[in-house]
Amino acid sequence: MITDVSIVSTNLNYKLVDNYKDYFVVKDNFKMEDLLKHKNVIFFNCLNNLEDQKVKEIFSILKDNQINFINVTNNMEQVLLTSYLKVYDKENVLIEGSTIEVLKSEKLLKRIGLELPFMVELSLLLKDYNLIDKIYLDKESLVNDLWK
Amino acid sequence: MEMKDIIKKYEIIGIVSNYKISLDNSLKVKDLDIKNLPQALKMVGLTEDCIDKFINDLTLSELFKVDLATKLNKDIIVIGGLSNYLNYKDQEYIKKILTKLNQDYHKYIIVIDENVKVFINLVKRIYVLDNKNIVYETSDFYDLELYKYTKMPKIIEFINYVNQNNKINKTLDIYELIKDIFRSVS
Known about the structure:
heterodimer, A: 148 residues, alpha/beta, Rossmann fold, 6 helices, 6 strands, 32% helix, 22% strand, globular, B: 186 residues, five-stranded mixed β-sheet, 7 helices, 5 strands, 35% helix
């Protein structure tokens, strides 16, 4: 079972969360202790401006407590913090799968108006220049391999 | 310094802060105080289909655009939440509209957002406010002091990291970055 999911959409809508009736919906500020009372949690576009490290910590605590969570977001950088990604075009799922595999559908994502996370886009462009042969998700490994 | 002095000088400015749209959810779009409603909706990228929708039923993107439509006739347009309400394509579209409103209609624009990335290619100067007081201002996206108050855009984070041991140019454009990496490693 997939326990950590990101959802992005061409046009985010509160109705999106209606499909997840068993989930505790978080739309604004929250206390961690409140999340831990639930088995399933859905964040609706409310983690966007937190530092990645902070979001990682929240997700890590949820995983440690075996809580399934979905992060519905307009922040494409944050999709890298979950293992599974669903892309909605308005109200229909356009593509879904492991996050990295979905992000490889670069042209499709851009066509519908979504950007790629910076490291993924940088890796794909560097691949076009034959400077690397894979997608890097962290800057340290990429820089080490580029400037050997 | 008064806010009106700042915006006269810089015309489109960015303010690092969170922003929540506060339109009355019980109203329909047609009930809002929007002059020349069909034209205003068209200008912000909406169709007339929205006119009969309740605010509560709008998507986040529609909500942002309707909020902007309510402000089009103001001399000073204060708008916020681009990074939260809009996807990338819509962000770029709205940035073009705000630039047009500034350049062609001589509106002063204040853009409020927690994510400095949306200010790139839009604002001339960035202000950080704390309790309505300006605590920091800069026009340099590479000013590290700014990031004591907010998240650093990934491209700046990457270039700063590279430049710890190598030398590439500071840019805000990923295609320029790619060319520079190519020159540096080849």
